[in-house]
Amino acid sequence: MEENAILTIAVLGAFNLGLLTIICWIRSVKIPAFFWLGWIFFPPTLAIINNTHFFLGNGNIILQHITLLLNVSWGAYLYLFFQNLKNPEQRKTKINWLLFTPSILYIPFIILTIIDSTLAEETIRKLHNNEMNFFSLFYNFLICIYAIAVNILLLIKEIRTEKTNDTAGNQALRERREMLSLMLVLQLFAFVPFLLKADIGYIILYMPVFGQIFFIYMFLRLSNSTSALIQFSYVQPINDLETTFIIKNSAKYASIHVEEEKINTIYKEIVTLMEHRKPYIAMNYSLTAMSHELNILPNILSMVINKKFNTNFRDFINSYRIRHALTLLDDFEKKNLTIESVAYESGFNNRTSFYNAFKKQTDKLPSAYLKEKVNYKANNQFA
Fold it and tell me: Is the pTM above the cut of 0.70?
């Protein structure tokens, strides 16, 4: 009866995590971060299947190697997922392979079991008897330590960003911190079986429970259309350089036939969206995200922005961000803000892009603007 219950939970957990993996990899076409989220789910899925095989007494050394090889760098998948959340273009850059050092360290053990068949037989025998040899114990311990360390570092970084930059109201930051906190709690529970030297049945039970909790959480998060993970992590199909080129080349828009009345309607919808919902406050807000919100093709939106606002999409969004930043700078001293906090609160994801946009819009740097305001107030006081 107990064995049947464990197997039922294992199958359900593997199914849920496997389903999440497929959903994430499909959605990664539009949201690159979900590619790495899929890798967060896939290794535990494989671990459930592998542990269940050993629980039933028919484990396989090849499946064991593949499982540990993928799971030992679980912390790397976590790190790359959160990096991609902040920067949707991250997947197109070179991956820092040092993140996968734990997997590289596992390769010598694979080679040893190939050279020495008795080591492979001993590993299988011990796992069948709910035991682990030194190597298996070491690499499973490494999985937990590496994942927990990466999670804690990422969580500290998010908390520092919130405290330093006064971005408590930033939805994307809140969601990242929420997910990291949940993952950390689950990882700490994953460490419990090793501290208690629990048998493989307990370990099999843990991973499906992890799957159920995270399945429910991700289902709710993915169902929330206002989630920053969904709304603000799209990759623009037309990048800024392409958009600028299209805007400068009017012949491109000559082929897009839209009636003037429709253009005016779209113009009003854009203004309403920007004035009332303020989507520009979200970091990495893209033409694609606006397209989804208004249900209008990106090239049509780009054309209308160019025609009615006489600018490209990036500068259009930045103009609203700078306008928002100026209102924050008016209360700079009262609210005890920093220039970095104003940048984050206005939708910029780094200080440099904020400075460049501010200089372009106002012909001044933020520090010069603040100094000018202070001097103006001082002169008025003594006038």
Answer: no
